[in-house]
Each structure stands twice: as structure tokens, then as C-alpha cells.
């Protein structure tokens, strides 16, 4: 019998540069969770290859996400930072989960539909099965809490469905083996904070994303000060001045987004930001927002650059993290094999 412990797990895909959305929606939350929990943060390289990745670019992106984690304040000695492909148990458990999850469940996943686009027949099987691998990432550690941005909500519901079905399907066997309440926890999504959904700077109804064709739509963690200022200056807005109350942001997605980013970076409630800027024109507000963004990201990006100059050191951190992750995952995977009835 393996005891269930409170544990945090989350992942970020190494596909291109990280954005301000990743930073505010996920990484700053990851940093916070370290105070109260044992945390495992994973660079999900096997998820990345569900869509074509240039091999050299993939290696660079794995190191870049690792550098972003550390530069933002994740402590790889006190917690675990590693890349997914170094811990084979993720793939092993994902296979079992492919046999638990139902086609109908995966057919409902909106991210697959978005990513596959019109030519669905040509999407990889991996892209379709992506949520089973994500469930395996979390449950191979029997993690209980998962900090993510809003866009991952549906995948986490599926993770709970998979855990629940596994627990039900094997219930008699689990009782015998000392797990009367089930083996996998129903992991709780932590979608909290002021910026769980940072929107594109060009279109306030679309998520800020690494894969948007327009670089002006996002702020990258590696952008320099001038680029950040330029992107914010060019950000889409409407002709009205800023409102002084939160209700005034309704139906104004671009204003809502910029004010949300400001409040998140400043660490204040949106109402306070509006108290300061209500009635002001966007031009002055944008100048202050640019200054604030540069001030917040500059230390992160310069530390990332310093870390990236020594890739060997990053690789060492990942190898060490993977070794420690394996120590946690291996006994859980062994137990799964026993539960399923595999002879070992
Ligand atoms: P990804 O880059 O898709 O691997 O996402 C890594 C993490 O960042 C996930 O928890 C996402 O939910 C979060 N994230 C990505 N884009 C945004 C965004 N625009 N706003 C808030 N969170 C985001
Ligand atoms: N699917 C997540 C994303 O695109 C990344 C991810 C993979 C993840 N495995 C995870 C997030 C496990 C949380 C927990 O953002």
C-alpha cells in the first residue's frame, strides 16, 4: 500500500518562446505553490511532439522552459524540475489510460479540434491521445493539485474522469490491495489568480498564444524592453477612456485584458487599477503598463539568458530532477501493474 500525499504537478510544453500568458497564468502560480506543497514541474516534451517540432529547436525549447522556471523562482533543489521523456513511467501509464479513456470522451476535447483544424484526418494519433498522457503525467505521481491556466480546465476534468473510471473498474481488486477509497486521487485544478486567461494583444477575444502567427499578439519572456514597449503601444484598444468601475470593462475585451495584465503584474485588485486610471486615455496607461511589464520581466529574461549560456548545467538539473521523479513514479507504476493484473 502506498500512502496518498498532497502533491502539486504541472507541465509546460516546450514549443517556442514562453509568453506573458504562460508566466502570469501558470509559472507565477507554480512559484507560489512551493511555499505550501511538494511540487513537481515538468517540461512536457512528449506533448510537444504531438505536432511537428524541429529537433534542434525542440532541444533549445526544453532548456528555455527549464531556464524560465528557474529564473522565475522555482527551486530545482527543493522541488523537482525535469523533462517528461526522461521518465518512462509517463508513457507507460498513458497507455493504460488510453485503454481506460473512451473515444467519446476524447471526441469532446476542444483543444484537439482547435489544434487539428480543418484537416483532422491528417492530425497525429498522439495529438488525439494527448489528454491521456496529460492524465498520466499527473497521476503517475498521484498528484492532488494542478495549477494551470483556464484553457486546461477541460483536460483536467478528463483526468478526473479517467481516475474515477480506473477506481471504479478495479474497485474489488483495489479493496483487496488496501485501497478501499480508490487508487488515484481526483486531482484538483487550481485555476486561480487574476490572469488565468491572458488574451492576445491584437484581439481581446483570442488567447495569447505561442503559436499565434503574429508576434505582435504576444509578449515573449525573451523580448527586450524596446520590443515590449512597442508591442504594448501597438496593442489594440477602443476609443473610449478607461472606466473607473469593473462593470465598465464589460464588452471591452481589449481594455479588460490590458487592465487585467496591469493588475496581475502590480499584484493589486483590478478595482484598484481602475481607481488610478479611470477616465484616463490609453496612451498614458500603456506607457505605465510597458514600464511595469519591463520591470517585472527584465530580471527573469536576463536570468534566463545567463542560464541558457550554460546548457550543460541545465541538462544536469533536468537529469537530477528526472532521477528524483523516477523514484516517486516507479513504485506507483509497479502498483498499477499489479492492480491491472500484469505479471511481473
Ligand atoms: P502551454 O504553453 O500550452 O504548455 O501552457 C502552459 C501553461 O500556461 C498552462 O497551464 C496554460 O493553461 C497556461 N497558459 C498558456 N497560455 C495562457 C494564457 N494566454 N493565459 C493564461 N494562462 C495561459
Ligand atoms: N496540456 C498542458 C498545456 O498545454 C501541458 C501539460 C501537459 C500539463 N501535462 C500536464 C499541465 C499536466 C498540467 C498537468 O498547457
Number of domains: 2
Unreliable parts: none
Bound compounds: adenosine monophosphate, tryptophan
- CATH superfamily of the largest domain, by name, is HUPs
Level-2 CATH architecture of the largest domain:
3-Layer(aba) Sandwich
Number of H- or I-type helical stretches: 14
Features:
344 residues, mainly alpha, Rossmann fold, Tyrosyl-Transfer RNA Synthetase, 3-stranded parallel beta sheet, two-stranded parallel ribbon, 14 helices, 5 strands, globular, binds adenosine monophosphate
Structure description:
The structure is a single chain. This protein is mainly α. The protein folds into two domains: 8-196 and 309-340, HUPs (Rossmann fold, 3-Layer(aba) Sandwich), CATH 3.40.50.620; 215-306, Tyrosyl-Transfer RNA Synthetase (Orthogonal Bundle), CATH 1.10.240. The protein is built from 14 helices and five strands. The protein has helices at 20-33, 45-48, 55-72, 89-98, 103-107, 110-116, 125-139, 153-169, 171-176, 225-234, 253-266, 270-277, 282-308, 311-340, and strands at 8-12, 39-43, 80-83, 145-147, 188-190. The strands form two sheets. It has a three-stranded parallel sheet. Strands 4-5 form a two-stranded parallel sheet. Strand 1, helix 1 and strand 2 form a beta-alpha-beta unit. Helix 3 (55-72) crosses helix 13 (282-308), helix 7 packs across helix 8 (153-169) and helix 11 (253-266) packs across helix 12. The chain is globular, with a radius of gyration of 21 Å. The structure holds adenosine monophosphate and tryptophan. Residues 9-11, 13, 44, 47, 134, 137-138, 146, 148, 152, 155 line the site of tryptophan. Adenosine monophosphate binds next to helix 1.
Amino acid at each position: 500500500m502506498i500512502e496518498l500525499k498532497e502533491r502539486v504537478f504541472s507541465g509546460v510544453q516546450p514549443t517556442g518562446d514562453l509568453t506573458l500568458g504562460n508566466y502570469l497564468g501558470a509559472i507565477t502560480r507554480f512559484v507560489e505553490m512551493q511555499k505550501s506543497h511538494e511540487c513537481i514541474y515538468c517540461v512536457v516534451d512528449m506533448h510537444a511532439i504531438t505536432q511537428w517540432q524541429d529537433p534542434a529547436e525542440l532541444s533549445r525549447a526544453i532548456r528555455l522552459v527549464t531556464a524560465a522556471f528557474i529564473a522565475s523562482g522555482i527551486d530545482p533543489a527543493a522541488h523537482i524540475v525535469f523533462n517528461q521523456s526522461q521518465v518512462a513511467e509517463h508513457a507507460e501509464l498513458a497507455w493504460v489510460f488510453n485503454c481506460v479513456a473512451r473515444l467519446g470522451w476524447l471526441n469532446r476535447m476542444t483543444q484537439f479540434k482547435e489544434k487539428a483544424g480543418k484537416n483532422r484526418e491528417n492530425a497525429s494519433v498522439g495529438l488525439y491521445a494527448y489528454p491521456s498522457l496529460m492524465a498520466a503525467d499527473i497521476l503517475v505521481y498521484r498528484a492532488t493539485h494542478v495549477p494551470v491556466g483556464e484553457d486546461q480546465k477541460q483536460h483536467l476534468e478528463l483526468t478526473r474522469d479517467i481516475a474515477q473510471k480506473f477506481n471504479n473498474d478495479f474497485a474489488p481488486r483495489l479493496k483487496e490491495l488496501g485501497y478501499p477509497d480508490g487508487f488515484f486521487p481526483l486531482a484538483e485544478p487550481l485555476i486561480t489568480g487574476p490572469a488565468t486567461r491572458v488574451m492576445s494583444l491584437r484581439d481581446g477575444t483570442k488567447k495569447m498564444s505561442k503559436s499565434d502567427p503574429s508576434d505582435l499578439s504576444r509578449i515573449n519572456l525573451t523580448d527586450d524592453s524596446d520590443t515590449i514597449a512597442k508591442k504594448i503601444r501597438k496593442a489594440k484598444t477602443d476609443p473610449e477612456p478607461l472606466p473607473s468601475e469593473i462593470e465598465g470593462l464589460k464588452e471591452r475585451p481589449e481594455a479588460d485584458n490590458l487592465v487585467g495584465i496591469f493588475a496581475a503584474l502590480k499584484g493589486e485588485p483590478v478595482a484598484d487599477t481602475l481607481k488610478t486610471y479611470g477616465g484616463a486615455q490609453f496612451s498614458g496607461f500603456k506607457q505605465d503598463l510597458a514600464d511595469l511589464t519591463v520591470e517585472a520581466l527584465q530580471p527573469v529574461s536576463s536570468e534566463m539568458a545567463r542560464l541558457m549560456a550554460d546548457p550543460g548545467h541545465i541538462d544536469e538539473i533536468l537529469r537530477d530532477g528526472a532521477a528524483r521523479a523516477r523514484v516517486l513514479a516507479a513504485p506507483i507504476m509497479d502498483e498499477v501493474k499489479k492492480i491491472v493484473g500484469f505479471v511481473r
